[in-house]
């Protein structure tokens, strides 16, 4: 009697598995070549607005970063101030909620695929790279598709070179690998095609709201906030004593110098490299937060970052830490965004003057 596990019976099964694997890989490759990138709803909306306006008047400045930038940098105010100072610009806000340093690179890569016509400066707030070690990665809007294989490899190198507990390393690695698997399998990349075939209309009005009234990628926190954001604002205003204590504690801290582990450096330098490949000059900046961000400052002092504008200093920029400038502790209000955008423009034009450069 022949065994049920004989080579003759196993071989066809293995062949079917191999055939399935080859078909899956081929389909995945074909989808990645034929479908538009699935950068996430908000980033896709912003990129579409960028392309439409860039065809009429090329943008020469873009801002990249998380919600601190999305809600904190007004291109209209930035352009108004640079024009007043004799260095007129045309800028766009590509900040995305939850965007970390690898997401900023992914957004810039997506912008490169749209062939911007006149880009000259890329201003990016990468936040503290060490945040990736203190917060579990989250699969937020636009973040899955930015976990390509190369980004995931760099993130894993950084995680495993850190001093995290092995259990934390495994937890963070699991999330990175999950996001990478979703990206590799093209999860969500065909959604727009399915919607078109099914006759589903996209929510254009909602997208117009999300990319701002001027369609420049900026939306103030004050602009029709959701109930949760509104509640956070009320709590912030009702407890000003706590906010003042946070500022005092931040100013009183004298943290030791922190160097970024060399495994995390490529996460920053590849942004700069890509910007230069696009013919633009990369400029890193620190938004007005309650984070010393010493690792980024060390990268600048050691020459790994060429340019860094720092605004995370309540003593030097008290107007950005006043109550009316904040929506809550982490984000600026509309008034705060106006002040910050003007200050950022002033620092930018100072740098241009020192560099003897003008956008044109």
Task: Explain briefly what this protein structure is.
The chain has 360 residues and is mainly alpha-helical. It has helices at residues 7-34, 41-54, 67-70, 75-84, 101-113, 131-134, 149-161, 166-184, 191-198, 204-210, 227-238, 240-252, 265-277, 294-301, 334-355; strands spanning 61-64, 91-93, 121-124, 281-286, 308-310.
Topology readout:
Blueprint (H helix, E strand, L loop, with lengths): L6 H28 L6 H14 L6 E4 L2 H4 L4 H10 L6 E3 L7 H13 L7 E4 L6 H4 L14 H13 L4 H19 L6 H8 L5 H7 L16 H12 L1 H13 L12 H13 L3 E6 L7 H8 L6 E3 L23 H22 L5
Parallel strand pairs: 1-2, 1-3, 3-4, 4-5
Polypeptide structure, described:
The protein has 360 residues and is mostly helical. It has a domain at 42-134 and 214-355: SGNH hydrolase (Rossmann fold, 3-Layer(aba) Sandwich), CATH 3.40.50.1110. The protein is 52% helix and 6% strand. It is built from 15 helices and five strands. It has helices at 7-34, 41-54, 67-70, 75-84, 101-113, 131-134, 149-161, 166-184, 191-198, 204-210, 227-238, 240-252, 265-277, 294-301, 334-355; strands at 61-64, 91-93, 121-124, 281-286, 308-310. Strands 2-1-3-4-5 form a five-stranded parallel β-sheet, sandwiched between helices. α5 (101-113) runs parallel beside α13 and α7 runs antiparallel to α8. The protein is globular, with a radius of gyration of 23 Å. Mean pLDDT is 83; it is low at 138-145.
């Amino acid at each position: 009697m022949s065994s049920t596990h004989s080579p003759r019976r196993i071989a066809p099964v293995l062949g079917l598995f191999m055939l399935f694997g080859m078909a899956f890989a081929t389909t995945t490759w074909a989808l990645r070549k034929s479908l538009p990138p699935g950068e996430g709803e908000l980033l896709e909306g912003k990129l579409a607005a960028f392309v439409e306006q860039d065809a009429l008047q090329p943008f020469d400045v873009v801002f990249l970063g998380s919600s601190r930038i999305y809600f904190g940098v007004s291109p209209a105010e930035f352009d108004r101030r640079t024009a007043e100072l004799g260095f007129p610009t045309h800028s766009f806000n590509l900040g995305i909620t939850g965007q970390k340093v690898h997401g900023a690179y992914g957004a810039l890569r997506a912008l490169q695929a749209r062939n911007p016509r006149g880009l000259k400066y890329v201003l990016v707030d990468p936040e503290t790279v060490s945040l990736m070690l203190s917060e579990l990665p989250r699969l937020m809007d636009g973040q899955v598709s930015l976990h390509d294989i190369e980004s995931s490899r760099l993130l894993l190198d950084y995680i495993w070179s850190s001093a995290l507990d092995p259990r934390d390393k495994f937890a963070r690695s699991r999330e990175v690998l999950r996001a990478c698997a979703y990206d590799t399998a093209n999860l969500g990349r065909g959604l727009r095609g399915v919607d078109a075939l099914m006759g589903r209309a996209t929510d254009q009005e909602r997208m117009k709201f999300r990319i701002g009234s001027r369609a420049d990628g900026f939306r103030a926190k004050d602009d029709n906030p959701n109930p949760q954001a509104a509640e956070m604002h009320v709590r912030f205003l009702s407890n000003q004593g706590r906010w003042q204590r946070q500022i005092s504690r931040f100013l009183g801290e004298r943290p030791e110098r922190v160097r970024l582990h060399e495994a995390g450096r490529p996460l920053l330098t590849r942004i700069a490299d890509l910007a230069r490949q696009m013919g633009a000059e990369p400029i890193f900046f620190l938004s007005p937060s309650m984070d010393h961000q010493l690792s980024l400052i060390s990268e600048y002092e050691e020459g790994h970052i060429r340019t860094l504008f720092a605004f995370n200093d309540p003593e030097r920029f008290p107007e950005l830490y006043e109550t009316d400038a904040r929506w809550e502790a982490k984000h600026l209000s509309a008034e705060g965004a106006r002040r910050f955008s003007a200050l950022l423009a002033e620092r930018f034009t100072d740098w241009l003057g020192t560099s003897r450069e003008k956008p044109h």
